[in-house]
Structure formats: C-alpha cells, structure tokens
C-alpha cells in the first residue's frame, strides 16, 4: 500500500476546523482519503463497524486517527479510552488535534495512550505547515505496527 492509499480518520465536530484541515491537506498535496466523523460515537461506529457503519470491513483501519477532544456525544478522551481497551484498535495511531493547551488534557491524552498531541494553530499558514508535517510523518515516515487492522 502506498502512502496515498492510506486513509485518515478525522474526528472533528467543528465544520470550520474540518474545512480548514481538509484545505491544509490539499494545499500540501496530501490527497489521502479522509473519513470525517463529527462526534465520538460516529468515530467508534466507523472503527468498530457498528451503527451507520455496520458491515464496514474493520480489517481496513485508518493509518492515523486525528482526534479532537471537545466532541458531542462522547468526548475525545472517552473515544481514546475505548480504542485502547479493544485489541482491534489498541495499537492504532491516534493524534490528538485540539485547541486545548491545558496540562490536564495533555496529560490525560498521553495517559490514555495517545501517540501525539498537537495544539491546533490559530494562524492558517501555521496550520498548513502543521498539516504538512503531520502528513509527512504519519503517512510516509511512520511504520505502523503490523497488527493494526488485524482482528
């Protein structure tokens, strides 16, 4: 599988941040398929093939999950807690991408098994650069564990 085939799961409830992220990816020629979940429940449904994603082949997992913390229904920390509790998603790379710079959020994210924590830059040019680096690292350089996606 080449880098362009690797799916990104973006878990983001703010339509402006979603559009900004997708625009930043395009501007950096990150043309990977992006699945957007707009709340924590939808993210779990996608990853576990339940709810509106029932029947989805869960052997095909995203290369990386970009997870906001402040989400409706289930917050990002609860999503992360559930991902790490399930053997099917325990090793899935999860990057917290949020506006929160609070120490308690950063600490809780790492304690629950986040692979990285990125505070969303407010400035668009900085955001574009952050998206470029994110894509380069997680989609090209990072070698995921072989069991990601395996049941």
Q: What does the model show?
A:
This protein has one domain (3-139): 3-Layer(aba) Sandwich (Rossmann fold), CATH 3.40.50. The protein contains 5 helices and 5 strands, in the order βαβαβαβαβα. The protein has helices at residues 15-27, 40-48, 76-85, 103-111, 124-141; strands at 8-11, 34-37, 64-67, 94-98, 116-119. Helix 2 runs parallel beside helix 3. The longest helix has 18 residues, at 124-141. The two termini are 19 Å apart.
Keywords for this structure?
alpha/beta; 5 strands; 151 residues; 5-stranded parallel sheet; single chain; 5 helices; Rossmann fold; globular
Shape: globular
Radius of gyration: 14 Å
Let me know the largest β-sheet.
5 strands, parallel
> Number of DSSP helices?
5
For the record, what CATH class applies? Answer: Alpha Beta
| CATH A-level architecture | 3-Layer(aba) Sandwich
Lateral arrangement of strands in the main beta sheet: 2-1-3-4-5
Which stretches are low in confidence, meaning pLDDT under 50 for 5 or more residues running? none
Distance from first to last alpha carbon:
19 Å
Instruction: Briefly note the CATH topology name.
Output: Rossmann fold
Overall average residue pLDDT: 91
CATH superfamily: Response regulator
Summarize the amount of helix as a percent range: 25-40%
Strand residue content: 5-15%
| Secondary structure tally: strands | 5
What's the domain count?
A: 1
Encode the helix/strand succession as letters: EHEHEHEHEH
Structural class: alpha/beta
């Amino acid at each position: 599988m080449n880098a362009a085939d690797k799916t990104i799961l973006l878990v983001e409830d703010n339509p402006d941040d979603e559009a900004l992220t997708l625009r930043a990816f395009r501007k950096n020629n990150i043309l990977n398929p992006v699945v957007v979940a707009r709340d924590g429940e939808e993210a779990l449904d996608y990853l576990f093939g339940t709810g509106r994603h029932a029947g989805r082949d869960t052997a095909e997992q995203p290369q990386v999950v970009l997870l906001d913390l402040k989400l409706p229904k289930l917050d990002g920390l609860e999503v992360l807690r559930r991902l790490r509790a399930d053997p099917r998603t325990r090793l899935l790379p999860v990057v917290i991408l949020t506006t929160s710079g609070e120490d308690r959020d950063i600490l809780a994210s790492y304690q629950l098994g986040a692979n990285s924590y990125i505070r969303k830059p407010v400035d668009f040019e900085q955001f574009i650069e952050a998206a470029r680096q994110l894509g380069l690292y997680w989609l090209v350089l990072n070698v995921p564990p072989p069991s990601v996606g395996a049941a």
